Every structure is written in C-alpha cells, then in structure tokens.
Amino acid sequence: MKIVKKILLGLLILLVVATVGIFFYLQSTKPKLDGELQLKGLKAPVEVVYDDFGVPHIYAQNEEDLFQAFGYVHAQDRLFQMEIVRRLADGRLAELFGEKALPSDKFFRTLSFRKHAQWTIDSVLMTNPNAPFVKAAQAYIKGVNEYIQNGKTPIEFSIIGIKKTPFELADMQIIMGYMGFTFAEAFRSESIATMIQSKYGPEYLKDVMSAWPANEPKIPTQAQESKVQSSEILAKMANQLTNIEYNSPFPPYHGSNGWVIAGSKTKSGKPILSNDTHIAFSQPSVWYEAHLECPNFKFYGNFLAGTPVGALGHSQYGGWGLTMFENDDVDFFREKANPANPNQVWYKDHWEDLKVREEVIKVKDKGDVKIAIKTSRHGIIMNESFDKMADQKEPIALWWVFNQFPSYHLESFYKMAHAKNATEVGEAVSKLTSPGLNVMWGDTEGNIAWWAAGRLPKRPAHVNPMVILDGSTGNDDPQGWYDFSLNPQILNPKRGVLYTANNQPADMGNGLVAGYYVAGNRASRIEELLFNDKKDWTEESVRQVINDVTSSPYKALLKDILPVIDRTQLNEPAKVAYEKLAKWDGSHDLEDTEPTIYYRFLYHFFVNTIKDELGNEVFKAFEHNGNFKRNMASLMRNDASPWWDNISTPKKETRKEILTQSLNEALNSLAEQLGKEMNDWQWGKVHTLTHNHPLGIVPVIGKFFNVGPLPAPGGRETINNLDFPIDSSGTYKVTYGPALRRIVDFGDAEHGRSVLPSGQSGNVMSKHYGDQAEMFVKGGSRPELMNRTEIEKVKTGKLILKP
C-alpha cells in the first residue's frame, strides 16, 4: 500500500512539475512589450508605447525606421497569422496539415497568386525602387524578418512543426491576392446560376438570381445628383469552395457597412465616419491596430497580416472606411477542346495552344502532388483545381480583372494614409483594379465622399455575366474598360449623408454596374435611421446605429406572406408562432424568441422549395448564396414561381401549401430541439459566436486557443450583421460579421472609438488575446488614442528599439 501511495505521489509531483514547466514555457513566448532591443538597420531609436488594450503607438524620426519598427512589432504579435495566410494564399497548407488541405492548395496554387505577385514587383515596385511606398514596404519586411530571426517562436510553430523562414515582397502581394479572391462572389455564384438555367430554364433562374430587385435601395451617385449534366458538375464547384472557406484557417471577406455624415448634421460641425467590415470570424482577429507617427506623418490604422499599409485608417486630416463594391469582376468561359490535342482550344477559326506549367505541392507524410496549370487567352483553366471537374471534357477558363493588371494596392493605400483631402484620395483610389472596393472618406475640411473603386470592363450587350460564357467564338469577350470617371461615386451629397451596405449603386450614365450585391435589408434600415432631419449626430448616437439589430424588411415580408398560410391547417404551436411573427418588428435581441422561430421556418421553406431541384450537395452552397439572399423575398412573394412545386412528387404544390407545411415543420422541430415551452426559445441560446483558432480543432488543447462561445444579438442582414449558415441543426453558429466597429468624429480625430471581435494579440498567453470579446458582443467600444500625453497615462509597456 505504501508503494502505491509513493507511486501516486510521484506521479502527482511529475504532473505538477510538468504543468509548471508548460506554464513558464508558454509565458516565455509572450511578446516583449517593455525594455530595449537592438534592430539592425535603424537610423535612430524608435519608441513603441503599448496602451491598455495592447495597441502599439510607434514614434520614429523617419518613415523607414517607422515601418521597420512596425514590421517587427506586427510580427511579434501576429507571426503565426502571417505565416498561415501566406501559406493559404500560396497553396502550401498541405505541407503542415497533410492531405486534408490538398483541395485548398490545389485551388489557390491554380489561381497563381505568386506569379501575379512577381509581375507586380517587376512592373510596379522595382521600376520605381525609390518611391516612398516601396521603401516603406521593404522596411516593413526587414522588420518582420528581424523578428523571425531573433524573436521568440510562437507556440503554434512548435506544435505544428513550422520552420521559420523569411518574408519577401511577394508574400505581401499574395496576401493581397487572397483578399481579392474572397471578395469575388462570382466564384461561388456563376456555376450555380449556369446549372439552374441549363437544367430548369430562365423562369427558375430569374426568381432566385436576378439583377437588383425593383424598389430595393440603391446607393446614390453623383450622376443622380446632377440629373445540364456538365452544368451540374460545374455547380459542385461552388460547394467545394464553400467547404474550403468553412475550413479555412484565415477568414474570407463577405461584406460591410459604412457611412459618413456631413458636418452640417453633426454636433461637432465636422464629418463622422462609421465603418464595420464584415469578415469571417477567426482567432486572432483579422485586423491589427497600430498608431504610426514620425515627422510629417501621423496615422492610426487597421492592418492585415503581413501588410505594411493600413487598409482602413485616419490621420489628423481625414480618414476612410471600406466595404465590398460587389461588382462582378469575374467571368467563366467554356472553352472548346481539341479532341486530338488536350493542350489546344478553338478560338474563332483556329486552334490555339494553351500555356502550360507544372506546380508541385508538397504533402505532409505523403508523396508530392503535381498539377498542370493551363491558361487560355481567357484565363486560367480551373478544371484540375476541383475534384469533380477534373474529368470534365470542356475546359473552364477563369477571366478575372485581378489578373489583367499588376496590383497597385500598396501604392494606393500608402497615398490614402498620407492624403489631406478628398481630391488626393480620389486620385489614389483611381488606380485600384480588383477587388472592387467602396471607399468612404471624411475630412476636417468638411468633405464627405464615396468612390466605387475598381476597373470596370465593357461587356457585349448580349452577355449575361452571371452565367458561364462561350470562349470559342470571341463574341462574349470583354471589349475594353470604362474610364474611372464613370465608376459610381459622389462628393458632398446634398442630403449630407452617404452610405454603402454592399447594395447596388445607382446609374452613372453607362448603366447599372453588374454585380453580386447583397439583399437590401441593411441598406433599408440604414436609410430608415440616417435619412432624417437630425442635426446633432455624435459618436455615441452613431454607435446606436452601428449596433442596431432590427431588420425592418422582415416585418414587411411577413406582412405579405403570413396571410397566404392556411391557418386552419396549422398545428397549435404553429398558430401561436404565427401570431408572434405577425407582431414581430424584426429585432434580434438575445431574449427575443421570434428570430428563433423565423429562421427555423426559413430553413424548412428552403428545403421545401429549392432542395428538390438542386440536390443535397449544391443546396449547401446555394442557401448562403448572396444572389439567393437578395432575391429570397421576391421569391416568397411570387405566387406563380415554379420553385413551389416539389418535382419529387406527382402533384403540383402551391405557395400556400409549402408555406403552411414549412411553418408546421418548423414548430415541430423547435419543440424537439428546445422543448415545448416557447418562451424558452430565446435567440441567445441558439445564436452564438466562437472565434476559432486554426488549432481549435485539435483534441484537448483546441479549446485553449478558441475564444467563446458567447451569446450574440444580431442576425442575417441586420446592421449588426452576425450571419450564419442555416441547416438542420437549429443552432446558428455565427461565421462572419463586423471584424471591427469603428467611428471617427473629425471634430476630434485624436479620439476615434473602435472595438475588435476578440483582441489585439495573437499570443494565447497575452491578456489582450480575448479582452475585447465581451465588449464586442455587447456593443461596446474603446478609444483609438493618438495623443501622446493620454497614451502615456494608460501605457502598459514601452519598448525602445535601437540601431
């Protein structure tokens, strides 16, 4: 017995020693926020003051030192995030995660971001190596690599077995390429649209994937102020992309809200800028905040991993926000293959050779995988990048605006950060090509402005860019480019308010810009709250709008469709739910039960209308499709739509029958899931937010890296847009939403306010890893400080970087 006790005591001691050892090891990986360090290449000392939320405020005596120090500081907090996103964009995740990452690697290697990055470096950066934006980028990379060489190794590197390797300018560019891909909705939509049109005809297509619905709000512009089998295989491409995105270690971009209110309507007399970018949630947060300052430059910005220029930000002169333009800058072309030569396709009157190169993907614990990247005059052939397209005889080419030009993002955003007025910003954004971005600006001179930035192609009049085009005749080919002056834009609108919510911009005189614009719910609510006679807007009152969780179009939709339901055929719980929905104002607060009922009803409506035509595989991708979301209300109001009929049954179902059946089924499934007491079906119980780390899936230790789950208000297409897939589970795990909520009153530019979804640091042991998570779900904020005296009062560390 004594021996057993000794053994148990020994094991306990070993466990304690191991636990203490692990704790101190993890503590040793934390960023150095205090003291002194040497940084090779600096011309003069640089001070980095960390505030009480871990935001670095960097003070240098020249710009190159400033950006080098920022590179070091950025890598210290987010090196693992930088490493993962460059590997994702470069198609090199399988080196770490094995075969399960191969579909993602094949897709992104096919997109050839590194080849495009080298083109940008050769034709833009190295042709003008002394340009300030090039020097800033090189200094930033130098700082990142100084940390990689001499700084602490993130714990994720040790767990996964990542070797630290230097960053290059090309890595910075491929990260920007990944951003461009995630903005392009056409990747997910055009194959499904082609399937629907090919298999069921235009009557089916127009009800779910038409252009901008009538009476939905459009963004005002300056012009307004002044006056079959193969198709089914292709559709599965969208499903595979959906799977890649859901399992991605770095979040795709989805949408955003942004508006600027003129000084004539604010208490300060200066414009107020509000922006919340909608990006899939992950841990750490996608944005990294930093305040950069040197002689003649003072800037507070939000930065993507591995990039030196703020994608969002403001100075003492003005600032900008971004949303997705949602313009259609992607076309797919069906090429005609030569039966005698797989490396040739027909064009007009002759066979043309495809350009072919080989890529080798390294796979952990497996042999290398070789893929052939083929390119026609229309673009990259996509077949080999998707498992279920590999045997497709007709090559499908990707024509993408992104691939038609080198990238000018680095130059444009550098110049925006240095701009002093709307004229300078307009010149900077005019060089942006792809992805399309809505850029909103406000400044201390009192200007407010918006530009839909991106190169817009001229397509032949007969072309429907939402379906796959014919590459063999040349008739569908783009015919050139519109001048930037014809891009949707507006300067100082008479109303005193401008906004974007990923909705359709109005006509600038050359027709509506084709695109995958989202449903008008958020736009309608923003107009409802901002388009009024209020003259005393403040940061606090604007924050009430940015946190709004009511979708008023839901109320209007239910008013139209509930009377169609046959109440005599409803079960008793469904009758009670009917009355609740009839009184619902569209709010999505934590204690509300109506959204729980509504989305369950919506799921059964989806199943009973579209699943029979699309099948299980395509249904998953289509349910979350932006075009379908935009047209869903029109479909539900259309009594004559062919989608009401279930093609699997001999009878022809009607709208009344399907809506009635869907509400009954919704209430039955809710009772089974949550119990029979309807008052217990609160939204906060089923709608939760978890910030998932790439290691979150690892057994036992995974939860240590994740932040959450947290009950979350908001919902689909509320201004506080906390979106989710709708499936059979009856739970709504938030996948994307505001990646920050940021408001700047230019009457006091040194005191903007913001909040990140989780925290500033990427180190799991840092107190700033998740210290904003509760604040975020509760709609709170904290300051974006730019005043040195105030920063010193809340500092948590001061790092001195010396030459």
TrEMBL record:
Pfam families linked: Penicil_amidase (PF01804)
Keywords: Hydrolase, Membrane, Transmembrane, Transmembrane helix, Zymogen
CDD domains referenced in this protein's UniProt entry, alphabetically: Ntn_PGA_like
Name used for this protein in its record: Peptidase S45 penicillin amidase
Family: Belongs to the peptidase S45 family.
Residues spanning the membrane: 7-26
Keyword Transmembrane carried by entry: yes
Domain of life the protein comes from: Bacteria
